[in-house]
Structures are given as C-alpha cells and as structure tokens.
Request: fold
Amino acid sequence: MNVVVVNNFDRMSEEVAKIMIKQITQKPKSVLGLATGSSPLRVYKLLVEYHNRGADFSGLTTFNLDEYVGLSKEHPQSYRQYMNENFFSHVNIKPENTFVPSGVTEDPEEECRLYEQSIKQAGGIDMQILGIGSNAHIGFNEPGTPFDSITQVVDLSESTIKDNARFFDTIEEVPTKAISMGIKTIMQAKEIVLMANGGSKAKAIYGAVMGRITPEVPASVLQLHPSVTIVVDQAAASKL
Reply:
C-alpha cells in the first residue's frame, strides 16, 4: 500500500488525475472503475483539461461504483447525471462504453447480476478509483458488509444518508438504498486508487491504512490488495 500525503484538495486531485492519465496513456483501452461524490469532482475537471490538450479517451470503458435505487438517470442527483455533467459529456469517451447501474430497473437483483457480467465481459477493471465514507465505506459497502460481496442492493446507513443530504434539498429526499459494486468486485481490480480529504475522513483513513482488517471497517480490506495507492491531504492523514 502506497500512501501519498499532499497539502490540500487541489494537490490530491492533481495527483489522482496524473495517475489516471498515466494509466490511460499506457493502455488506451483501459477499463476504469469510477467514483462519484465530492472527492473526485476536481479530478474529472482536470481529466477534461487533459482531453482538451489532446488526451484521447475514445478507447476507454468505465464502470461506476454505484447508483441510488429509485433515481432515474435524468434525476439531477443520480450518479449517471453526475458523470454526464462532470466528465462524460466533455470528452470523447463512447457513451455505449460507460456503465452505471440503473436505479429504476424493475428487477434490481437482475441488474446487479448483469452488471457483474458486464465487468467480466470487459475483461475486468484495470484501475478502480475510490472515495471513502466517514464510516470507512467504499462504494456503498457499509460497515459489516462481507468481504466476499459482489454487486448487490444495499441499505444505506444513517451516517451515509446524513453525509449525502448536502446534495439534496432535504434529508427525506435522500434514497435509502443503492446498487453498489461489492467489496470482492472492487478488490478484483488490478489497481486501486483511493482519495480522501479533510479531517472528517481522518479516522476512516487510519482504519483503512493501519487498523485491524475487519468488515466493520470496509476500507481496511484494501490492506490485502497487491496494488493500492491512497492519496490524502494533510487533514485526512492527521491520524496516521
């Protein structure tokens, strides 16, 4: 596990964007696992800038970590909409090669099965980008999620709902379920890059890097992966 500590959010974003561009340059047909939320926002902006300077994303295939159950792809807080607004619509990636689970499918369990199947058909994920929740969740895999879990419907914890309420008008609007890649699915990626910033993530980062490996701290499983880079600002690294 390689831990990179930088000064602030902007430097964190720049470091992660550089890692991703190196991957894309070395393997233009990379399969990337992508995250949403506030942590990777500037990363996507920087990738768009790389594209405007000539970076080619036409060979990429992407799989997002998760999607809220109950939100259509047009909903302003859906993760499909997030990806379109912040990344996909600004670069030359092929829309048919961008995968985000459907939050309004009639059969969520079948959606999960098909998502796993699509990842396998693409050859697996070359590089998985992760954020981390204040309770150390990765994807939407909350504390207690078995390490052998694959893509599944999950119940969001109270702390996650509170954390995500800032994106909605009221906390009552925050969905209580999501489709999420499982921990096993994430761990099957060839490389993993996790980013975190701010003191509110310090405890989670300590647990991920130095804590006991336990399902109660989902990100602690990353200690078992052969190729993980964790990029954190000084505040998030303050307990290391």
